[in-house]
Amino acid sequence: MSDPAALTLAEAAQALRRRELSSQDLLAACRARIERWQPRINAFVSQEPRNSGREGPLGGVPLAHKDMFYRAGRVSNCGSKIRRGWVATETAAVLERLDAAGALDIGTLNMAEFAYGPTGHNEHWGDCRNPWNPDYITGGSSSGSGAAVAARLVFGALGSDTGGSVRLPAAACGVTGLKTTWGRVSRHGAMPLSHSLDTIGPLARSAADCALLLAAVAGHDPRDPIASHEAVEIGIDRPIDSMKVALSTGWIERNAAPEVAAAVLAASRTFKNRVEVEPPDFDLLSAHCLTVMQSEASAQHAQWMRERQADYSSAVRVRLEAGFAIPAAQYLEVLRLRAAWLDQWKRLLGEADLYLCPAIAVPLPTREQTGPHGGADMPKLLAGVTRLTRWVNYLGVPALVAPCGFDARGLPIALQLVGRPFGEGTLLAAAHAYQLASDWHRRLPPE
Amino acid sequence: MKPLSAEAIEAMLAAQGIPLAAGRAERLAPGVNALAVADALRAGLAFEVDATTYLLALSRNK
User: Fold this and answer.
1) CB < 8 Å to A294, chain B
2) DSSP-derived secondary structure letter, A363
3) CB of B45 within 8 Å of any CB in chain A?
4) Can you tell me the distance from the alpha carbon of A143 to that of A370, in angstroms, rounded to the nearest whole number?
5) So which residues of A are the catalytic ones?
């Protein structure tokens, strides 16, 4: 075996079970890659082991997670200056469950400040950089999770998704990422941003890997009041011909960059059973998402905004300031409308199992274009990057992002599969079928 | 809905104990006002609906 770090999580777990490799082999391979890649991409915040492995379905597989999942007695900086060095007193439900499954936790990963940014910039901890080209954004806010998995520094990572924060880094870094249904995964012990939208999900090399991670972390938890009792059903081996896929080809052709449209539509043809539908009102639903996100995030940060405003980066401070200007009645009316929009979503899908669209419809911008010194075009660039992710959070449904090509600059292009509430299994099965028929997810960034 | 002016935004934030740097309210206004979008579903929203009905919608739309 040339480089064990190049295996998928599923392959690595199997090699461990068959005793073809040891956990120490995997750890050494990951550490060798971290040594080479960390100076280039700044994916890790800390590299100290945070648990010890044990027997289990993920027994001995090295993982690392966004620096916002608390572990009792350990630091969670949450990408911020305000929480720099803050020591948690409890352990996140998702980490407890991964510990129980035997996974190694080998460090904490970079992220946007308080998970409130879509690009991977971080003025407190340094920008995370895209392994395919460090001049370009990683996507955020789970920037380190996307970059570390793409560079094969770990076999998988957890991120959080409030407006696209799992899917944007997965798309920009060329890995597979799953935004779960609101309530599918317990958020106990995870840093909150917007309680009506926050979800936790895996980033890994393949849909099969994400399925393994989801199986380990999903399920009811009495400590999270919105954690669902719905059964966790994740069977990824479904024939591709049994799946009916809805899409809006005309919208993609008119709105996506030509390279993105070509790659996503080519991927869609893997699914023989397709149906054309009117697209959801992406922009309206995104506006509703932002109303909820900004209102709740500002309420969450109200005390620090009054007492420690100077300790926020200017980008995050502006977003938080905006939330204080949203009338309470507007916020609550948007939440009242949410059920009606979910009913509309069911009608749009009709008989289809899922909806297929791009993850990011525009060419990926550079860090310079979208950073503190970005020009007048920056708001438009950021709106383009997030246009197709936020609407999903407003609906609260699951969505999976997977690589489906590369643009002329060598940067990944990704498709997005959006499902029904608690339909993660369907999305994983569809993506798994697509990945059995393609090899985009197996490409490695150049050394 | 009438757009919020920069002055109104500045006053709203000041009332909540959030001071704004000079010129910041003018920068915030377009983004804040862009969120107050017309939504056709508003007209059909039953009086009895509140935010928690979304939990039921998650179950019935599986």
Assistant:
1) 35
2) P
3) yes
4) 14
5) 66, 141, 165
The domain containing residue B29 runs over which residues?
Answer: 6-60
What's A201's domain CATH number? 3.90.1300.10
Looking at the complex, does the CB of residue A420 fall below 8 Å from at least one CB of chain B? Answer: yes
Chain B residue numbers with beta carbons less than 8 Å from the beta carbon of A422 are 58, 62
Q: How many CB atoms lie within 10 A of CB B60?
A: 11
Q: Average pLDDT by consecutive 10-residue portion of chain A (447 residues)?
A: 88 95 96 98 95 89 98 98 98 98 97 98 98 98 98 98 98 98 98 98 98 98 97 91 96 98 98 98 98 98 97 97 97 98 98 98 97 90 97 98 98 98 97 97 96
pTM over 0.95: yes
Question: Does the distance separating the beta carbons of B20 and A325 come in below 8 Å?
Answer: no
Show the domain range for A369. 10-442
The DSSP secondary structure of A332-345, one letter per residue, reads HHHHHHHHHHHHHH
| Interchain CB contact of B6 with A (< 8 Å) | no
How many Å apart are CA A76 and CA A189, to the nearest integer?
11
Phi, psi at A401, each rounded to 5°? -115, 135
A:B CB pairs within 8 Å: 99
With b for 16 or more beta-carbon neighbours within 10 A and e for fewer, the B22-53 pattern comes to: eebbebbbebbbebbbebebeeeeeeebebeb
Q: How many domains does chain A have?
A: 1
Q: Cα–Cα distances in Å, from B52 out to A74, A332, B57?
A: 35, 11, 9
Task: Kindly give the residue spans of alpha helices, DSSP state H, lying in A73-224.
Answer: 93-100, 143-150, 167-173, 207-217
Answer whether B58 touches A (CB < 8 Å). yes
